[in-house]
Amino acid sequence: MSREADRQELPVPLRRDVRLLGDLLGEVIRESGGQDLLDDVERLRRAVIAARENPPGDEADLAGDEIAALVAGWPLDRAELVAKAFTIYFHLTNLAEERHRVRVLRGQADLAQAKGDGEGGMGRRAGGGGPRRESLAAAVAEFGTDPARFAGLLAGLRVEPVLTAHPTEARRRAVAAALRRMAVLIQALDQAPAPAEAAEVERRLREEVGLLWLTSPLRVKPIGPVDEVRTVMAVFDDTLFGVAPAFYRALDQACRAMPGTGAGPAPVAAACLRFGSWVGADRDGNPTVTAQVTRDAAVINADHALRALENATTRIGRALTIHAASAPPSAGLALALEAAETEHPELLAQIGARSPEEPYRTFLLFLAERVRATRLRHADLAYAGCAAFLADLRLVQDSLAGAGAGRQAFGELQNLIWQAETFGFHAASLEVRQHSAVHERALREAEAGGELSAQTAEVLATMRAIGWIQGRFGVAACHRYVVSFTRSAADIAAVYRLAALAVRSGPPPVLDVIPLFESGADLANAIHVLDGMLELAPVAARLAAGAGGRRRGNGEAGRGRELEVMLGYSDSAKELGPVSATLALYDAQERLARWAAGRDIRLTLFHGRGGALGRGGGPAGRAVLAQAPGSVDGRLKVTEQGEVIFARYGHPVIAQRHLEQVTSAVLLASAPAVLGQERDAARRFRPVADRMAAAALRAYRALVEADGFAGWLARISPLEELGRMRIGSRPPRRAGAAPGPADLAELRAIPWVFAWAQTRLNLPGWYGLGSGLSAVLAGPGGLGEAREAYQGWPVLTVLLENAEMSLAKTDRRMAARHLALGGRDDLTAQVLAEYDLTRRLLLEVTGHPRLLANRPVLSRAVTLRDPYVDALSYLQLRALAGLRGGPGPGGPAPGERDRLERLLLLSVNGVAAGLQNTG
């Protein structure tokens, strides 16, 4: 299909928005930089599009050489402006695509609601042919013959996204804010405004595009951890707080299709969402996250939660103008009002004067004042915790329901109860993370009794900070402590011992210490570590308290013998490659699920996934369905990192759809029929997977363990410069690691994946798979067996489909130009041969005529974007060649180096926007 045909296949509204924003950008470029600048941008744009029309070969290489010469002929100042133009174009295109996705999702919801109004169903396809794919209704339908099993699953359902500050969001906050403003303006165009109104919208869009052009795309100063906290909490304000009740309404409506569900207004669905946060608490390798930063993070989080609850309570209270005679208050509510009047007569008189004989309005406005007092720390009126607030809300709800006002009891008031249950007074539970080696050194120093190093003092201060947070905001605000690179139960015991040493004047903070298994060896050793953990007194006491229903700070009771284990996807994938890491993680999940079942422990697996495919990313719902049988069991906890936070939670409609997809997958993965199918597939196809993994691992290690590999990677990619983008507070290497390419093991997974994406290879998402498939095809079952395994076992389906997406975003011609910078023909040949093999065999096994043939919308988007990404890649190659010294001796002069590095970082920013992922 031609490029023009692909463009014509775009939906008309999306095509309109892209054309409008592109035209406005062209106007701004002409006004700001002159027609000559716009001509240069257009010249490069036409050249890269034309080059894409040439098949691989000498003619294509010649076209590429001509484009490289064009780019090399510009002064660096001009090259920067051209890079900026293409980067802004991608920001605007991404905005248009997001808006269209919202448009489509709203249209689907409207159609589903229309069908629901006529047929009593929610989330059904427009044709009436059953529930929509990946919908809550589709998941509930799987339990149609087993309502008791579904009721039990629903009672314990828990989905917990954990927001992290991993540096993968390349856009500045100022850029993101401008794009949000433009999104509102574009939405106005969908309302078919009058000509004068449309002209005003275009004027304001032109103004915003102009502002974007005048805004530096690169951060001038490094971002700090408190800045990261505020950035993430903007998502809470703009999206999460309002999306939670909308999600629960959708879940409740889907659940009502289950036989035996009550028909009354009281909800069937409980608040199953919880949010965690590492932002301002993850100090593993990040010395800027201190005990004081963690305290500040808790204060900021609580401030946002309390403001949101105060505003919602005030809004609902003002609207609840029910006369006492119409719905008499219950005896309990009357007593509560009497107690409030006794303790705070002036406040109640003031509220009552505005709400005469309206007890529900009076009491809710009083509760709003109490929430406000909690935020401002007015002790005489403040709540001790969220549990008391929830008790007051339920008192109002029970009184309304008892008086016959069920719709009011379970309407907006129920939404508020769900919000309080989900977010508490702390918004998101802070989770501290630190490396096991840091604890080992700290414990040795602390027990020796001598002078403490700064690092050890900071570890002890962190323990005290956790206790302070719990005292002020409740245990739920911060009680989980993740230990990176857990190797033994002693690593867990060290945390409990340090907590006791840190707080000598009273009891230590309440801690749930979570082992994080990251390497292949640690994943294999996980059961041994957990057996040792059960012998630790604090863990045994924790499980016993859980069995007795320990109360949390937000009033949430323990639900039995619970334990949490975290699995690291990023480091295992960097160590083992995508194929072997996928199967190692699957095996670990399977073993852990069996271990927990045999010990009557309710296990929650915490998946440390990144956003990129090379770090365990990809479509979340499909990933859940590919987990080992029994390892989900109605619970999912997963990290949401950097750019993923804004992609999935930046818009309410998209956020709700994402949460519905993930929750539906959790329900499906816990359905007996699906569990049975998964176990059968694992038994049947495991030998195929083992042959694939062994060959893939050999190929992967042959590359990454080759002499000089780390230095070669640093030459062909912007690896060493990524830390200077200032996109996060965390360094690209762990503390103590020497700068430079000498030790790949100390390189964090994010810059590893980010660097490969910039080379247009996306190597961490597919390398080794071709060798693995070759080994399978050479076996007795051949292609037929490989296809059956791909189609029949979800873990292999997801593995190959994710690799296909990685390959679709890979460009061999541009990658070859990056590889040529390294001066290692042997490694270049090795990488390109594996690429060719992987691409060819993947298409054979999937049966697709081309990459992403089964996903035409995504395929079309990649095809239309590729030339524009090429333009930025040529600019990046120019900068890299200059910084690496080029073909001649020596490198650039000092002044020129700074300008080349700026061009490089501008192009990195643009390529990340074009590919829509970093690390």
Report strand order across the widest sheet.
1-2-3-4-5-6-7-8
Derived structural class: mainly alpha
Strand content: 5-15%
Sheet bearing the most strands, described? 8 strands, parallel, barrel
Q: Which blocks of ≥5 consecutive residues have pLDDT under 50?
A: 116-128, 550-559, 737-742
Mean pLDDT: 89
Total number of helices: 38
Written overview of the protein:
This protein starts with a helix and ends with a helix. The chain is mainly α and 919 residues long. It has an 8-stranded parallel beta barrel, surrounded by 9 helices. 64% of the residues lie in helices and 5% in strands. It is globular, with a radius of gyration of 29 Å. Helix 13 crosses helix 14 (359-376) and helix 33 (782-792) packs across helix 34. The protein is built from 38 helices and 8 strands.
What would a concise description of this structure say?
64% of the residues lie in helices and 5% in strands.
What distinguishing features does this structure have?
919 residues; mainly alpha; eight-stranded parallel barrel; 38 helices; 8 strands; 5% strand
